[in-house]
């Protein structure tokens, strides 16, 4: 059976094939038009996908579209100005692109997480802080120390790595946050990672840390082309509308081993940089204070994250305890009457016997059975029978003492535990209940008072035999058990 290839896949595949020859084109107008043409098509695909798929947060997507478009404008101006002064006209659309993309991502993340995803935000800040330390040492510090640069040129130059760090933090937040992770999500994440990767590679090259050469430079440009194409394909994918949908933050989620490894690696960047500088400087650390600041910041973020993890464990414990309580209640409650069931009764009776022995107090037990319940069901129906059981249970509980326990033993049979009541007091208490039975019905009951020696089963058996004597004697009566 043949299946058609979706439009987003066609766009991505054809776009990558068209971009493949770019590194080997001769430098000049053709190469630049080739690059800018792919960038324009990728941005246009983003606009088409946003309009067609109608995401729930359209403002965020349109900010991303306009941000990518501003980046294309910056590329065109960059090519048209071979002298490239600083500041230059292309700096405005480039920097505007950063702000628009960052704002769009922030809107998308706030909606995706309802503005309450603090744990993942701390994780992303931890990663960004580690990279900020590297950025300062290798990219920003040389600019600050360059006395040949005018202040405006320094500020513009420093703006690029600063905004890259902002986008890196947002990308880390996007990757660590919960929510839908479909094809569109992956393509958008690849777009952000490719743009940032290209920015950092170019930044290191611009600071003369290495020379990529002509072919290497064009290969670096290809990362931006891949980014444009991935974002266009991601916006064309129908799953893009799901990326901004809110997720349930009330559900407690475990922390993955992969994330712990990532966070551990980020925190090790500062001491690794410290060791590298000490090795290169013969024991002298030129960036000691920035490294100390980075370490302190990451330490505080780790403390904040550990606090959140401890709270998460406590939340998990509360959830498990609540679930256990609900399961226990379901297991020990009769669903029709709401009374304790036979399981709960069997658990409570031995404890009551031990308390009576300890306090040397009397303890009586009654077995109650509704009279002619089968005939009532046959005459009025099972729904009326259920209502009789419910109303009978509620009436008995309301008219017994607070210390007394009534449980449904099975069918129309109930048991009552009467602590502190002698046999005569128990019989009198049940006699007061008989005329209160709802719907004109009656019950027969047997009462047994514990002799201090018999087991729980023996005590129930004596009360049960007394109940059957009450039935045999004409029903609607209470009989005391024989000793």
Automatic annotation (TrEMBL):
Keywords: Membrane, Transmembrane, Transmembrane helix. InterPro entries: Diguanylate_Cyclase (IPR050469), GGDEF_dom (IPR000160), Nucleotide_cyclase (IPR029787), Rev_trsase/Diguanyl_cyclase (IPR043128). The chain crosses the membrane at residues 29-48, 60-80, 92-109, 121-139, 151-176, 183-203, 223-240, 260-279, 291-310. GO terms for cellular component: plasma membrane. GO terms for molecular function: diguanylate cyclase activity. CDD domains: GGDEF. Pfam families: GGDEF. GO terms for biological process: cell adhesion involved in single-species biofilm formation; negative regulation of bacterial-type flagellum-dependent cell motility. The keyword Secreted does not apply. Residues 361-483 form the GGDEF domain. NCBIfam families: GGDEF (TIGR00254). This is GGDEF domain-containing protein. It comes from Planosporangium mesophilum.
């Amino acid at each position: 059976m043949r299946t058609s290839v979706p439009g987003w896949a066609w766009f991505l595949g054809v776009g990558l094939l068209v971009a493949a020859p770019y590194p080997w084109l001769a430098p000049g107008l053709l190469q630049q038009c080739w690059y800018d043409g792919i960038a324009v098509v990728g941005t246009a695909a983003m606009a088409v996908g946003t309009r067609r798929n109608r995401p729930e947060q359209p403002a965020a997507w349109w900010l991303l579209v306009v941000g990518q478009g501003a980046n294309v404008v910056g590329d065109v101006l960059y090519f048209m100005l071979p002298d490239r002064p600083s500041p230059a006209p292309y700096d405005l659309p480039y920097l505007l692109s950063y702000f628009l993309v960052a704002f769009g991502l922030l809107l998308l993340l706030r909606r995706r997480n309802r503005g309450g995803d603090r744990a993942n935000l701390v994780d992303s800040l931890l990663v960004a802080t580690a990279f900020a330390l590297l950025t300062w040492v290798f990219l920003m510090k040389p600019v600050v120390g360059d006395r040949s640069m005018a202040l405006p040129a320094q500020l513009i130059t420093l703006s690029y790595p600063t905004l890259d760090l902002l986008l890196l933090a947002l990308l880390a937040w996007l990757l660590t946050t919960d929510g839908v992770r479909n094809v569109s999500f992956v393509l958008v994440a690849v777009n952000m990672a490719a743009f940032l990767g290209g920015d950092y590679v170019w930044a290191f090259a611009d600071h003369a840390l290495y020379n990529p050469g002509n072919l290497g430079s064009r290969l670096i440009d290809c990362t931006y082309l891949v980014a444009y194409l991935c974002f266009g394909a991601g916006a064309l994918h129908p799953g893009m509308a799901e990326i901004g949908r809110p997720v349930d933050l009330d559900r407690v989620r475990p922390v993955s081993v992969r994330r712990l490894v990532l966070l551990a690696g980020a925190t090790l960047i500062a001491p690794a940089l410290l060791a590298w500088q000490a090795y290169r400087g013969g024991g002298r650390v030129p960036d000691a204070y920035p490294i100390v600041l980075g370490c302190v910041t990451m330490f505080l973020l780790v403390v904040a994250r550990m606090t959140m993890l401890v709270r998460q464990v406590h939340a998990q414990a509360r959830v498990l305890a609540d679930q256990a309580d609900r399961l226990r209640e379901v297991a020990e409650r009769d669903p029709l009457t709401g009374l304790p069931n036979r399981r709960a009764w069997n658990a409570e009776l031995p404890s009551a016997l031990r308390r009576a022995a300890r306090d040397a107090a009397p303890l009586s037990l009654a077995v109650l059975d509704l009279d002619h319940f089968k005939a009532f069901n046959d005459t009025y129906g099972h729904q009326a029978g259920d209502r009789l059981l419910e109303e009978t249970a509620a009436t008995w509980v309301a008219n017994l003492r607070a210390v007394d326990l009534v449980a449904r033993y099975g069918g129309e049979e109930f048991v009552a535990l009467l602590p502190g009541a002698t046999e005569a007091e128990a019989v009198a208490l049940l006699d007061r209940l008989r005329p209160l039975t709802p719907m004109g019905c009656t019950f027969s009951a047997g009462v047994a008072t514990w002799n201090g020696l018999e087991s729980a089963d023996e005590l129930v058996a004596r009360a049960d035999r007394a109940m059957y004597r009450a039935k045999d004697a004409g029903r609607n009566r209470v009989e005391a058990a024989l000793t």
